[in-house]
Every structure is written in structure tokens, then in C-alpha cells.
Give the backbone structure.
Amino acid sequence: MAASHFKQLHEFLDRQVLGQPEFTRNLLIAVLADGHLLVEGPPGLAKTRAVQALAKGIEGDFHRVQFTPDLLPADLTGTDIYRPETGTFEFQQGPLFHNLILADEINRAPAKVQSALLEAMAERQITVGQRSYPLPELFMVLATQNPLEQEGTYPLPEAQLDRFLMHLSLGYPDAETEQKILRLNRGEVLEGEAAMPTPLTQQQLFQARQQVMQIYLDEAVENYLVQLIIASRQPANYDAELSSWIAYGASPRATISLERCARASAWLDGRDFVTPDDINSVLHNCLRHRIIISYQAEADGVTQDQVIDKIVSLVPAP
């Protein structure tokens, strides 16, 4: 039952966000793997539209926060409000107490705001004054950032980047998709357009997550997954060029994220076991933001995706 609901939701997302099938699939993988998502791409690629469409398909509260340089931590967490009639302070909840949070242009907020978001993402709670408040059981941050403008931005620290389950990088659509976007923008009904699905209840979502964690992972496939991570930390054992490219490898959190995303990928494909292809299909998104390349590699124009491609070529699949 949960699988059919996710299939309908996937079809709906594909019709709302044209020409980005990998993006919409990874949105669902992030939901199933119970993680946060960082989406990077030029303006106008429907990043915000995709998140809003996802929120319509899941039962829960949605809130958008536009990150700006003058944003304060209390604008996210909430604050204690003094009530003169009672002489006491009452906590007023902030946007982080919603289920789905769209952190738009997250890299425009200063470090103190990012640190408040860091606690929420890592601990599923926020702290105001001397008290900590738990966040909802269904809590997901979907952050966007624009790679083109660097003025007035604050690069995300590595510790916060590591909290994101995946980092998606979007590109421009092709000519055929661009025409469909024009027609959709004019209000024309596209052929085969999917109707708005019945929102997925939180109970159905939690059941789907349990099914994902029951997907079978063979020991040989598990070892392959681990070796991919180890290759990023000990590149000298695999290749001299790879070693010169990597300054710091992926953390244990990357291993956990990679396993959960591979399981979710297999579940979406209707299988009850994980294959090496499932791991490779999510590998770049899980490691792109966790591998820090060396200054020399950066000067030579080497990207994280090239590093991951090299790792895949060096680690034999079962």
C-alpha cells in the first residue's frame, strides 16, 4: 500500500518539476531515509517548486524560511515572550517546529543562524535559554543554495554539510523540456498529467521507512559499500593520483547515509535486496559534500564528482 502511494507521489512530482527525474527520485529517497537534503543549482530550476509539491503530497506542516544576512537564531527556533499579565515567560515556537522546512538560500545566513539549524538537524531538538524542546517526529530540512552568486553569502561549515543526507546538483533542462515548461506556465494541461494524489499520511510514511530498513543487504554488498568510504579516507592504499586529490575523506555518517539511501533506492524499484547499482546510484549525492579535495586538486580543476568516479573505478564491485 505504501509503495503505491509513493509511486503516485513520484508521478505527481515528475509532472510538477519537468525534466528533473533524478531530482524528484532523490527527494523521495531522502524522505524514506529520514534525512535532510541540500539542493544546489542556478536560479529558476524549480527547486522551491519541487519542495512545495512534495509538501502537498505528505500530510504535515510546511514552512518556508527565506535566509538573509540579518536573520537571527530566534527567527528559526522561537523565543521566550514575557507575559506581563502573569509575570512569566512563555515560549513561542519558531518555524523549526514544522514538519517540512524549506531553507531557501541557506548560505545567505550568518554562522550563528547556521549553528541553530545544526542542532535541529543533528539532535532533532532546539535549545532556548536553559531549556531544550523536541522537534516533531517527522522533521526534514530541504535547503537550497545558488552557486552563481557568492557576494553576501556564508559558506556552510563542514560540520553542517555532513548533517545533510545528500547534496544534489541540478543542471539546466533540454530544449524539449523547456517547451513543456512554457506550456505548463501558460496553464495548459500536459498530456498524461498526473492528478494531485491523496496526501501520504505520517503513519504510512513511517511504515514505509520500516520496510526500507528491512531490505536485505548481503555481506559482500555491505563490504563494497564500506570499501568505497575507506577509499576516500585512505586513498594512498588505492592510487597515488587519488591520494593527491583528497585532503579529507568521508565520515562514518556518510556510511550510514549511503546504506539508508541504497536501501530506499531498492525499495522504490520494488526489490527486497540491495545491489551494487543501488549504491552507485546514490554514491555521488551522498559523498559530494563530504569529501574535501586538496588545494592542488582544486587548482587543477578537479571536482568532487571526478574524485568519486575515480573511487568507483578503483574499488571492485561484487
In short: The chain has a mean pLDDT of 85. The first helix runs from residue 2 to 16.
